[in-house]
Structures
1.
Amino acid sequence: MSKAAAPLPAWGDPILSDAEKRSLAALCARMIPASAEFKVPGADDALIQADIAKSLDRDAAAVHRALAQLERISGGSLADLDIEKQEESCATLRAEGGADLTALGRIILQCYYRDDRVMISLGMEPRPPFPKGHTLPQGDWALLDPVRKRGKIWREV
Amino acid sequence: MTDPVDILIIGSGASGAAFAWSMADTKMRIVCLEQGDWVKPTDYPANGRDWEARRYGDADIMANRRQLPADYPINDANSIVKIANFNAVGGGTVHYAAHFPRLHPSDFRVKSLDGVADDWPIDYAVLEPFFAQNDQMMGVAGLAGDPGFPPHTMPMPPVPLGRSGTRAGETMNRLGWHWWPSGAAIATVEHDGRAPCINLGHCLPGCAQGAKGSTDITYWPVAIRAGVELRTNCRVREITIGPDGMATGAIYYDRDGREVFQPAHVVVMAANGIGTPRLLLNSKSDCFPNGLANSSGLVGRNLMLHPWPIIHGWFDDEMDGQRGPLVSIWSKQFYETDPARDFVRGYMLQFGRGAGPVGEAMSGVEAGRIPWGAGHHAAMRRFANHRFHVGVACDDLPEAHNRITLDPVLKDAHGIPAPRIDYTMSDNTARMMEHGIARATEIMRAAGAHTIACSRDVLNYPGHLLGTARMGTDPARSVVNAWGRSHDVKNLFVIDGSVFVTGGGLNPTSTIQAIALYIADQMKQRLDTLFE
């Protein structure tokens, strides 16, 4: 008997439609708006939106469902509503919640918080951890003196 | 069919690697089958800008989320603790935090001391030389002299305290409670060709620096140079049995999906607490209709997973954030049984550092600490890089109803029945957990946290998979004997976390590997009488 090598699982269509992209951008603008005070773009920024669109990965099916949920709540595209109605729809979406919305929210945050401008605003260098790494204070091991003074606490057998 | 080998090891993780290395000096022909592949350090997430996102994708600790070709599905819907594992050369050590405590002497005598569970057939003293050997091979950093544990040396100096460890240590001193720098399999100085830790702060999904001691870079290179053959992308379907009731080898699917029979004189199970019982239960035959080595009915039972709530505290001043090893300090203050409490046994408190911005944002938004809209940015800056956490590592005692069976429907990509997990928390563990949460909350308050959070519903998933083929002297009450040999099949051995009689309240990798080295040593001493 011989079996074929394991196929990769299907995670859903990784491509968003234009209508879904419009709703997503409107949702992102309500979720994380741009801020002049902190010198950061909103999550509806074009670069961040492009990153989100190519990052659906294992959550593609959940993202499509979450955007359909949003469209149902909005009675169409969220982008076509005025700001007040958009806020109402987003509040309803959050109140309904669910695993699909959680998955969509995670992708938005994962892409937003790796954007160069956002990382710089947080005081971080816009780079991966490797190979530069980080420095960490060693600390003062004399802090352990009181622990040593109290003596052994493990149980003899 | 391939040529017979002397020893066939199934699984290349913590135990399989240590065992293979130890047995290599016998010059026997040894083959290890691993269902995953080698992972290159350049493939680890810390190399890329998506380093945090990949923790929730292809580098997730949960196989059900990763769904990589080497992974198999696990039905853990009926378990409060979900199953974390990793299927590759090095196994779970690739994805662990490298926390390296040892089981305490009292953990081996739970029945005698506290009247619960069972005593082990071995004790701490038996394992002590193998702990030391393993510490050297894995490269353990720490500080000797911990009053919370029997004296032993540490090969390297400890990981830095950092801001969070310092704050936690000062707080524990004020409370008058034990704490000590964590022992960690992390090279803090150059060690055996491994470069020292540079505080990438991203230990769990693989260390790009190679400072974390995972067995793909510790034991395996040495074992392979000594002649052990490691075959990757080989998923074992079943252990085969001859008419005499002895194991004859294993049937596996190779990287091209071809079915291969590998004959062997000795079969060694090293697939840990889920993989090993799954394979034994899948190895049914006329001789063993209930699964291999299962005359006791205990294969898959007594699963221990370590319920592990985490208490987070956020502070006004900056902490370590994602910088530095996850592990920092530990406390054994509440580890041993205290008759004044309403539970027996105890837990270790493990102090960890913070999270990166993605992790902070995700947990903050989902918990409502960080809002949508105009207040998002200010809240994010209040929380990011301002927390540390305390994990409560609870000793969950063995209970027969906590078990692994074969799922009647779910199968892996090769059609092999998948494991189903049924696991509930005992009243003793629940009381222990609440005690630990209360103490950790007390610590956070004393440390000055402005916000404290804990979840009892979504527990940490430590990937500690123990007890499902336990060792003992009575064949009716255990699966293997005191040196890992199956009571039923005298050339079948189990060397992984499955053999644990009790789980302790701490990370088990150090003890798993000490046991694997001990069993290898026992086998080498008994080569002439191994099957008697």
2.
Amino acid sequence: MAPKPVTSPVPVQWYPALSALLLVGGLFFTAFFFIYEATSSTRNRSLAKEVVIAAVASTFLGFGSLFLLLATGVYV
Amino acid sequence: MAMVSRFAFFLLWISVLSSTTHSELVISRIDRRVDLSSHIVRALFSMKVENVGSKVVSEVLLAFPNMQAKNLAAIKTLYNEGRGKVKASSVSLPTAVVEPEGMPPELTFYSVSLPKGLEKGGTVSLDVLAVFAHSLQPFPEEITQADGQLVVYQDSAYYLSPYTVKVQTLGIRLPGGRVESYTKFPNAKLVDSEITYGPFENLPAFSYSPVIVHFENNYPFAVAHELVREIEISHWGNVQITEHYNLVHGGAKTKGGFSRLDYQARSSVRGASSFSHLIFRLPPRAHSIYYRDEIGNISTSHFWGDSRKTQLEIEPRFPIFGGWKTSFTIGYGLPLQDFLFKVDGKRMLNITFGSPMDEVIVDNLIVKVVLPEGSNGISASVPFPTKQGEEIKYSHLDIVGRPVLVLEKSNVVPEHNLYFQVYYHFNNLSLLGEPMMLISGFFLLFVACIVYMHTDMSISKSSASYLAKIQLEEVQATVQQIQNIINQCLAVHDKLDASLRDLSRTGDVQSCKIARKTADAQLKELVKELKPLVTFLHHSPQASHIWPKVEELVAKEKDMQEKMFLRHSTVVDCFEKKLGGREIENRVASQQQKLAALRQEVDDLLEFLDEI
């Protein structure tokens, strides 16, 4: 079998744009999370909803910051 | 004197041995060319070996005096298949150290294994390239800034071989500067900075005739005492190379003071032995190059690149004179797809071993290949012997650390700048480890917020203010719920409105009636939900200030429901009586107005409650 070059899973040129998009999405969900925390009263707050929003926000922020690291040259 | 006595000892040995050696092989011709133009000595032996014995011979011995052998950095034997002038493919033959019996201990022997045995009367042509480090001795050992650097090279005019040599010549190429002296015996000629000895004919085995050449060589004697090359692979698309140099000028030591003025004014004369810049030939598409030392970035560097190579020229912080040291770090990134390949399910890194710097001797080279976290089954294939080890490195976002393959080699010359391969297994899912860590980090932050918002931090659970707070929260929650329910009611109203509009468009009375029935049921349900909440609020002392508003809201909403149904039945009636559109409008106009006013009031109240 001939050697096949290994490439990155996502083209390197996409990293800056991808990081910006994901971070904006992540910050949007983070804002949504904190607005929900601040405005809903203690009794009406639903734990499931909080956790779901937190999970979505942290997924976006996690991938966003990973691509930010990669785009700035910190190859993790 | 010591040298003379050593030679005397040699000659003694040789006289003993020449009588006892009965070799099958004879070197019919050997041309030795020694290149002294840089500080790395390269000797190329083109030899023709003939078998005069009766047995088939499969190996040829090469002898080097121990003095030379200890500096021998690389040896390569090429075997030319073609005959005569047509040099077809040349094959590299394995060349290894051996210790044959009955040979003098002052000599080190290398054995070249021939690809096929040499028959009786057969000949074979071999090209041997031997590369020596640290073989030019500076003499004098200390010079001033203004002096040129003189060095001494020692060799033998006769090829030192365990075989009889029929015809031989020796050519020594000098860098072209001043030649202080050279051994004129036997039969030496100096023409255009090249000294030739010979030809000599029919010399017995182990013939030796010392030759000393004393000449000027101002080539940059760049010697790296230690070079640590770290090759870090990231499957996210980069091979990062970091090289830590510990560089010294390996030539004659400088004595007296250093005059910056002299150096600056006439650096070619007053600093001929020094060097002020170094050239690195990096692989193509190298990017993110940096050059720094302990105190920060060094700005004196130049960089060119095209599709085939990248060249980096750096200037150390000061010119390097004999014995002076400097240490610095360069680093660069390379695209992953140029160096990492997939072979039979394994990953293969294919990258050069030595330093990319021009003509540098590395006394101790440590190559560390840092593989991504989660790699296993690591093996390396290096074209020359190295010391191998493994360690663990902790870097960004690591849990168990990255496996590091450490390759160590001493006496490295540019001839060692060959490709070597590192094989390892890697699962692409391991790539997700890093984002998972970041995600869990952010998630923990959110969880901390959730926990903080959900925990009751008050110390005294029975104090009046605490109880009041609890009650207030309850009131708030109830008001929110009421608001929710009212909003749902309004949504039902909107649906009912929509059904009326549908009716005026399609005239389908039946579906309109069904819509009314469902709306009725939904509203009843909502009102049922609303009742306990309103009662609670009515009895709660904390809610006294908003109770009137809530009561008004609930009343208005009820009113709205009634009006809504009234209008609905009116319109449906009219439709059943098949009245004209204008007449229907006239009939419901007043109700419509009232409803709009009520809706406005309800919205205002909701907004007011929101603000509380």
3.
Amino acid sequence: MRNYVLTTLLSTVVAVGMIGTAQAEVNVVTWGGAYAVSQQKAYGDTWKGEKINWINYNGGLGEIRTQVESGAVTWDVVDVLPDQVRTGCDEGLFESLDRDMFAPAPDGTPMDKDTMNKVPNDCVAPNIFWSYLAFYEEGTFKGEQPSTIADFFDVKKFPGKRGIHTWPNALIEMALLADGVPIDKVYEVMSTDKGIDRAFAKLDQIKEHAVFWSAGSKPIELVKSGETSMSLAYNGRVGAAVLNEGEKLVPIWDGQVVEEQWWVVMKGAPNVEAAKKFLVHATAPQQQAAQAKWISYGPMRKSALDLIKANEPWHHKGVNIMPHMPTREEVLPRSIFADPAWWADYGGEISERYTAWMSQ
Amino acid sequence: MSTSPAKPGGPVLTADGTPLKTSLERSLKLSKLRALGLILPPLVFLVILFVIPIGSLLTRSIDDGLSNKVLPKTLAAFERWDKTSEPDEAMFEALYLDMTAADRLDLSKLGTRMNYEKSGWRSLLKITARGLNRIDGPPYKPAILQLNKRWGDIKFWQSLGAMKDPVTLGYYLKAVDLKYDGNKNVMRVKKHNRIYQMLWWRTFLVSTIVTIGCLVLAYPVAHLLATLPLRLSNLLMICVLMPFWTSLLVRIVSWMVMLQQNGVVNDSLVSLGMLHDENRLAMMYNFTGTVIVMTQILLPFMILPIYSVMKTIPPSYMKAAQNLGATPSLAFIKVYMPQTVPGVGAGCILVFIVAIGYYITPELVGGKDGRLIGNLIAYHMQNSLNWGLAAAMGTILLVAILTLYWVYDKLVGVDNMKMS
């Protein structure tokens, strides 16, 4: 009996020890669906290093904070949203990354200068841009077609229901834009109580006509089935429906709200060196551009976007991807880049107000 | 074991000369230890899975020690301040000293915490912390004001009042749409930010409707199950259990297919001419959807306890009642139904308790006005990271359930409850 116990104990120790040493893997945590597939193809299939375990999650810092605080970190690389990247880095949940390890652009520009937005801290590695935008199906409206965000809020001119999401991000910005606030003044106006009231007053105009969605696949369904005449959506979903399925959907680029998405390495990650190597690979211009072959999200690095432009048709189905890139030059003047710092400050309060507004 | 002859007045001894009392105690102690050893695994299990998490839940929900740890001098200066005049140099000096001494990580965690009291604290602390090294000595007030003019906004200073004590009820207040003002008086939050009272009420309402709905649907089914001939009742039992064994998500998605605007139900009603195409019913992504789907999902929890009680009621009772002159319905009401009360009680309490903390169904089908308190708890755990508030809400939920259980015990008696 004692022998048996001893053997079991010993073999457990040995097994645990082997797990500890034999880990030639990287655990990459990202979002599911077509987006994860694009990453597996662009970054995973071209990667010659350690085995990659792709793990899905639904965002949020909850799990990340739990892992770091309990000291039982199992994730290595995580794909995170802009507000999380700031809060998480401030709270010490992510490793800080040596800026010199990343590949420069072909013309020698260092990576941090090659991104289209400001790099917020030392924890991040560039990933993609995506956007919230309005869209409709061809043939929905007779005569004049909607072309601006103001049209989305105008149910008299363009009748029918409107699909909007169940959280306030991007909606506040769009409402103010539609109400005539100039793009560069939007966050200034949003920082005042009056400005928020103004945004909600604008939202009131479509409230009676609103159908609320929370899953990213829903807007396409809403518009195609005719339940709503227009909807807001993630640009990648609209792009996929048009490019992959041949749907006749028309995105309204005016007033789109562009969001960033970053890579980070978990503090105390079990495979920290492999994780960093993987990020160096995934953030190289070539790989960043390759990602857009599979889904219409904009690479964060300018040099990657240039690569796509020069090599159209870039989409894997042999069509041009640039018309669906949220960061192409033509649409930038009427786009808002979401301000994560503003949302970090006011997001909680606005979410409460939006929830109350939604269910009244 | 033989005892030596008792000496009058002396203790009774065992064979080896120790007093019988001591020997008995020793052997009792040993068997007690053995018993303890046997229950040790479940005990450890209980401590790890219940006592520790619930304890940490309770502490999280009232802990507010961070502000005192990071800003002791500032809070002391705040106490001396009259809360209405413009903050003076002494307060800014205290702030400067606290912030330069503070750990960077603590400071950003505190920023998150303070932002719950007043939006804007997070960036204010961050910007200030970044600029501190540019300040080279007193006077601190103009220097800090220059870093960010919001420091001149008295509302930020006043909000410190809600955080000055290391133990707070602030999260509990927040969970019912109340808050502390600068003098720690309780007041209501701004009108258009009130959501929690409404959500508590909605959660209670949904749970009640679902419980009643389950009872109404389950009672006849359970009765059928208990009275049909075995062959038929087995078939019916499978019909009850099949959905119970089916994945929750599958059941929810099938309801989506059925109930959405262009779903099976609406399409059939329109094609039958009972509904105009423009007036399709909104039965999904709202309150109605949550109630319908939750009722179906929780139905087995009502059927099974009622069935198990009904099964034990001898059919001869009903016959006896009718022999004695009762009509079938009177016999059912006077004789049969009272005997099913333990099952009904168990079913109701089971369904209500599960419903009140329900999360996944309302998340998927709740849409604009069918989401419950459980969804807000998850939101604060995963997204806003306001774990204190999530813990306070969880505690309120726990207390509500325990109260309910207590009331039930007083009214019906827990001993009367039959789960199976």
4.
Amino acid sequence: MSAFEPTIQTAEKRAVWAWRPFALTLPALVLLAAVIGYPLLTIVLRSLSEPAWGVQNYAWFFGAPVNLAVLQRTFSISAWVTLVCVVCAYPYAYLMTAVGPRMRLILVLCVLIPFWVSGVVRTLSWVILLQDSGVINSLLRSAGFAGIRLIRTQTGVVIGMAQVLLPFMILPLYSVMKGIDLRLVQAARSLGARPSRAFLTVYLPLSLPGVYAGAIIVFILALGFYITPALLGGPRSTMLSTLVQTQVLSLLQWGRGGAMGVVLLVTTFLLLALAAPVMRSRHREAGRR
Amino acid sequence: MLKSKLAGLGAVLALGMLTTTAFAQEKPVAGEVKEGSLKGKTLTFVSYGGIYQDGQVAALKEFVDKSGVKLLNDGPTEIAKLQAQVESGNVTWDVVDTGDLPPYVHCGKLFQKLDLSKLDVSKIPEGQVGECSVPAMNYGVVLMYNKEKYKDNPPKNWADFFDAEKFPGVRALDGSGDPTGGLLEQAFKVAGGDPKAMTAADIDKALDVIRKLGPDTIYWKTGAESQQLAESGEADMLMMWTGRAMTAVKNGAKYAPAWQDWLVVMDQMTIPVGVKDTDAAYALLNAYLGKESQEILAQQTSYTPINNDAKPKVDDSVAAFLTNTPERQKQGYKQNIKFWVENFPVAQEKWSALMAGN
């Protein structure tokens, strides 16, 4: 950067230079303001102004038990999906760092190819696998077991959503893991640590930033899921987005739909705010070691 | 001299007025449109896509060719989108196909009150023209049951459908969106009520009958899903749209209909408030109602035509599910539209609570 900068600057010039990076992000900022900021503002306004000014839509939301039950369910399903994703993605991402380049390419493709297929198609494939007369239950029955109900249950929804969201967990994890110096683990081993000990005290803490990044992305995306719960779930796995859809598209209650969206957004922010200090402290700890 | 000239002038004027009024009062005939009358104009037609909208477009082909109009297609119909257009004063949807109730719920607000002098509604089945709508087609919601499961003792009506003790098995209901008024009325009858005297509070009683079917009950989200449930045998008894029931049976599903009290439903054709060229929209509607158009529609989609003269050429599998035969007309059950329009928000609220597992 010094190549472009004169050695002696006036304060004014320095200020101009400091603004350069921001100027570069201007197109993105304008786009964000137009396609996210403005609609979001409209939604907040409508939630407070329709049919009249006031908080009646929020009063309605918190007054109806079904809304609270579904809100709670939305968070619990998302949490389960995140957990399943972490458990499945962690060893997979580790394997990606451990194998040779050709095998790694295959592993990357295994993640990316389903990722490129439309979510609807993947969800419909899950219908075929999970339904009572589907592949899984046919196999179970032909092996002499009783069939299990998977479709139209929360389990089915969690399975389908976890598969759709898995790449969002694997990729951040992999990008962190490939930066971890494996010699640190070897050093721990050479100093007498058992493999499990070396993993828990050296590797795991170093990989945690990837876990956090992936978990946050997966969790937030899961909160807004619509198609998968609609197709794989039943009434007992309805998520908030379905209720928003009913309010807006069927009842034309934009205010109520907006209020639901705002509640979901604010609750998400609150949860993230609660989680942030934990993540930061762990981060520092990992850095110290 | 002057007097006779004036008289002549008067006669000419009177004649002129007579011809213009005669022209204005020229009765439209369903299915007809003037050659080249809409040249250079564009109409946007909105419906639900799939083979249905394809069939509608095919039904309108002659209208397009003859009038010279440019027909654009959009969809699927979403009342919220239409509302946004009407509110912003920028209505781009000229003719909109909707479900049963919206034209009644939003009549005069989102949908224009129809000027029936601009349409020929004489061939439409009785009682189907609304203040803001003409029918787009008829179909039914029919009880389909698994023939292999129930064998010699099949369910015969909705009372059997709601009787899980006498007829064990998995039920599948329409969970695609709005509640089906006719089904709730049938459920209320099972609860011992009289649908004709139903009140808003009775909706709960009807819903309790549905709740009693238990947690295994399936609420299908799309017509395709209902068809899949029958073809794979996932559900033993289903409420199905006749078009989907017909296709499922055609594809080999071993299911049969119980026609008693099949629920009469229809799609509606509407003109939104604030369209740019109302007369062009009327011309499209009038052409759509014609005999040939309705025959094409029925042949392509298997939905029942809404022109009494229409005689579509369909094979037996399709004909078995057409609902305009005298026998079917006798068995059909019409929902209390007025009640459901008045109680639409309440019903929807309670229905979506049921759909959300409460």
